[in-house]
Amino acid sequence: MSDAPTPTDGGPGSAMVRRNPPFSPRRVGAMVLRYIYLIRGSWPRIVEMAYWPTVQMILWGFITLFLIGHSSFIAQAFGILLSGVLLWDVLFRGQLGVAMSFLEEMWSRNLGHLFVSPLRPYEMLVSLMVVSLVRTLIGLIPASLLALMFFGFSLYSLGVPLIGFFLNLIVMGWSMGFMVSGLVLRVGLGAESLVWAAIFAVAPLCGIYYPISVLPDWLQCVAFFLPASHVFEGMRAILVDDVFRSDLMINAILLNVAYLGVGMAVFLAFFRSARINGVILQVGE
What is the pLDDT of residue 178? Predict the structure, then answer.
């Protein structure tokens, strides 16, 4: 049955009305076409479709590869895996705390209001770091206490090095959060999925659940330049060998100094470009 206009029963001269069937394939097709155009016009959306299955496959592939050749690891796996999960959350929450706080300003179209005030861009970056730290602690402390209550495992058994691990991971998270936020400001909210995608892209290279030696040689070279890989190697050294690797801590600190500088510089560069082009007043849903 067509959707063409038909006369009412009121006789000659009656107004023409359009039939509205309960279900119209044409309307469904029009909406599907709309969403296809949206996907086609945003490369982050296209990449995201293949991204998550690929990351999960790589991560669990390396975990399986490690476990196959190290059956003795199973006896110590409980504490190592729980430590990895909790410390990974520091990195993830650190990055997410920065990026999500910034995105909330974009979603509410509040950036323009903020920067007609005396607020400096670098002051905003410092405030984002403080908020990220608070949000991370709110998430980590209850989780670590519940791990002790339910499983008898204490993350705090890592001792004083835990402070260094925490700071290195959250600083790396801040650095990535600044870069991603700047990129979203430059490209637009169509790229907001990068907030989650970016941090998980480096997860297989950080050695969260397995040693870096499991990776192919060329990926080990890439992992060397990630502060998190040195943190998780240092964590395993304490839990497995009861040894504190000061060299790994120093490597992570030096890399994070560079990461934080680059992250802030990238954000400020994108922010300056957005302000010159008048983008700040146009961002939003």
Answer: 93
